[in-house]
């Protein structure tokens, strides 16, 4: 298993605990877990691609900016994403190619509306060769 995520109960927000074998997989897992909260990812066809790059002062900020950028791209372009190819992954930069299609509410019914990735209780790091993130999302 390259990554895993577990939903957390949180008042008025949703939380994610993400674990991954690498930083690249942590960034990928953040996008996939986010999409799973938005809709049924298995119904999304990877018919289009959109390149996204963000930088940050540290790995926690970069993850917040990355996930926030994915939310923004989906809203701006009315798209949903089934996967992402990570092209570059460092603590201060992530670049990837989002794979998805235009949102179709019949095929992509909304589970949650995620407004933002918050800084509340944010924890991102590496321990014993595995990467982890605790992220709270504003819904």
Looking at the overall shape, the CATH architecture of the domain at 22-105 is 3-Layer(bab) Sandwich
Within CATH, the superfamily of the domain at 22-105 carries the name Archease domain
Helical content band: 25-40%
Report the CATH C-level class of the domain at 22-105: Alpha Beta
Number of strands: 8
In the CATH scheme, what's the topology name of the domain at 22-105? Archease, Possible Chaperone, Chain: A, domain 1
Largest sheet: 5 strands, antiparallel
Describe the protein in words.
The chain has 139 residues and is of the alpha+beta class. The chain has a domain of 84 residues: Archease domain (Archease, Possible Chaperone, Chain: A, domain 1). Helix content is 25%, strand content 45%. The strands form two sheets. Strands 1, 2, 6, 7 and 8 form a five-stranded antiparallel beta sheet that branches. A three-stranded antiparallel beta sheet has the order 3-5-4, with helices on one face. α1 runs parallel beside α2. The model has no long low-confidence stretch (mean pLDDT 94).
In short:
This protein is α+β, with helices and mostly antiparallel strands. The protein has helices at 23-38, 59-77; strands at 3-10, 13-20, 48-55, 79-90, 93-102, 116-117, 123-127, 130-138. A hairpin with a 2-residue loop joins strand 7 (123-127) and strand 8.
């Amino acid at each position: 298993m390259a990554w895993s995520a577990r939903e957390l109960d949180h008042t008025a927000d949703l939380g994610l605990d993400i674990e991954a074998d690498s930083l690249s997989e942590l960034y990928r897992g953040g996008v996939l877990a986010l999409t799973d909260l938005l809709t049924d990812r298995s119904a999304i066809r990877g018919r289009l691609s959109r390149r996204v790059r963000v930088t940050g002062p540290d790995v926690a900020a970069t993850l917040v900016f990355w996930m926030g950028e994915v939310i923004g791209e989906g809203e701006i372009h009315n798209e949903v994403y089934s996967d992402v190819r990570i092209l570059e992954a460092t603590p201060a930069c992530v670049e990837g190619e989002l794979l998805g299609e235009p949102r179709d509410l019949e095929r992509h019914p909304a589970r949650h509306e995620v407004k933002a990735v918050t800084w509340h209780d944010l924890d991102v790091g590496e321990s014993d060769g595995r990467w982890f993130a605790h992220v709270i999302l504003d819904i």
